[in-house]
Inverse folding.
């Protein structure tokens, strides 16, 4: 059997499972809250064009409007000033082969439960690699925090000092971007940066460092607790938006059962 018929047989027999890492996308989807001097991203709005009525007697369809970075979404390098002049840096120009890669799931759910501002450090990653092996070439590095199980104000988790949610220390972003050959990082939080990262050096350090290195981001993922630390494959292909800085997408993992 060739590799694709083996995969198909495994999918059909249930030895390989398809796990949906995507949150529902609709008017209730939370959007990032930026300081008031910056442009706000609108939430999702959906307007019905017709629903089996005078406007279209046999068909139902809608228009959709939202920011590119809404719900479970992809960040392209062109999203950030550090990545704006790189080649093949937008949703329509990134080679499609770069949307598929092995998953390395960093489980920081215990740490995030104890400290909402928990940051993954290079030492923390070194401990992960001692247990699970070196982060694979072309990996999607997915940070499990169980943040996707939160809703409403628990998800945003903001107080007078801003949002509090876990993420990557700048040194960890630098290590992953420069010392490992990854596609990018994914997070369960509203963006790939920690809640307090607006005050880091550089501000929004994970965006700054990852996109400057031509790497991608995946935000608002869920079901990372259903993935093994290694061994799954993630497919995360954004809409082919012309010069798109990002896009909502369906993120799927193929995982051994
Ligand atoms: Mn984004």
């Amino acid at each position: 059997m060739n590799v694709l018929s083996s995969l198909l047989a495994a999918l059909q027999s249930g030895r390989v499972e398809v796990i949906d890492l995507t949150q529902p996308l609709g008017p209730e989807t939370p959007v990032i809250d930026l300081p008031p001097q910056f442009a706000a991203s609108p939430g999702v709005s959906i307007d019905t064009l017709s629903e089996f009525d005078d406007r279209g007697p046999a068909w139902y369809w809608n228009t959709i409007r939202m920011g590119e970075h809404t719900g479970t979404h992809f960040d392209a390098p062109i999203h950030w000033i550090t990545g704006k002049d790189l080649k093949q840096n937008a949703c329509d120009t990134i080679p499609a082969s770069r949307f598929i890669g092995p998953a390395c799931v960093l489980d920081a759910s215990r740490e995030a439960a104890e400290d909402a501002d928990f940051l993954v450090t290079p030492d923390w990653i070194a401990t992960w690699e001692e247990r699970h092996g070196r982060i694979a070439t072309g990996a999607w590095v997915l940070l499990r925090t169980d943040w996707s199980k939160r809703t409403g104000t628990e998800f945003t988790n903001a107080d007078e000092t801003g949002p509090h949610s876990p993420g990557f220390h700048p040194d960890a972003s630098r290590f992953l971007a420069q010392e490992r050959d990854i596609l990018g990082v994914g997070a369960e939080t509203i963006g790939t940066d920690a809640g307090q990262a607006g005050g880091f050096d550089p501000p929004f350090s994970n965006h700054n460092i990852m996109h400057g290195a031509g790497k991608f981001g995946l935000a608002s993922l869920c079901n990372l607790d259903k993935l093994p630390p290694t061994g799954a494959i993630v497919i995360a292909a954004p809409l082919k938006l012309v010069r798109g800085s990002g896009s909502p997408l369906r993120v799927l993992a193929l995982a051994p059962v």
In short: The chain has six helices and 15 strands. Residues 26 and 44 are 6 Å apart (CA to CA). The first strand starts at residue 16 and ends at 20. Residues 69, 73, 75, 191, 217, 219, 246 surround manganese (II) ion (CB under 6 Å).
